[in-house]
User: What shape does this take?
Amino acid sequence: MQTVLFTSTIFGPIHSRRLGTSLGVNLMPADGKVCSFDCLYCEAGFNAQGPGTKGIPPREEVARLLEEKLREMRAEDMPLDVITFSGNGEPTLHPDFNGVVDDVTRLRDRYYPEAKVSVLSNATRLRTGQVVEGLRKVDNNILKLDSAIDDTVNVIDRPVGKGYSVADVVEGMKQFDGQCIVQTMMLRGEHDGKTIDNTTDEEIEALIKAYKDINPREVMLYSIDRKTPAEQLVKVEREELEYIAERFRREGIRVAVS
Assistant: This one.
């Protein structure tokens, strides 16, 4: 089984194909995975590896570790484009997510005021007030929508527990009044005997409707770039991604392909 890739609370900087030079903030355990999705393509592996023993880092520890890293990077005159909440699970599950956003923004302003703050979220917590408040404060509020069809989400993203619906997620995204970025992973393949393909005409039409309802600042369209825990997944190549993006653009949707 593919296991956790991020073994610390602050990691990097790394080069992100979508965001540039990125310093990562992992709000989940450094030795396990905690997420409200269990995506077939997650670079951190499946949730079955467990949450580990270290627990979720307290707000104060996140701020201390981040400041140490930013101070070190500034002293060495290292470049930084973005501080990104990502890592071993869903960052908005942190019990003090809103407070952590405040700390990260304050430290960004002190050490790298030109850098952006980004959150990569699966959008499962958009009914939680402090989560929404925190997401409103960041520069790049990046929310996942891999399909606008419930059955497809259940196969690809595998929401944990009951109650997930695309309709609810779209309503949650609409409350940002366009101040969000929607991130969609395009892929094909098979898992547990089920065929996976979110590039079909039916899928594209459903996404067009959802994107229009959400009216995001941008859609990020991408495909597999690393080893995935589900081994029978197929990357959608750049040329086809561009073709799909053009279908969205013809509908007035701003799309970036990476």
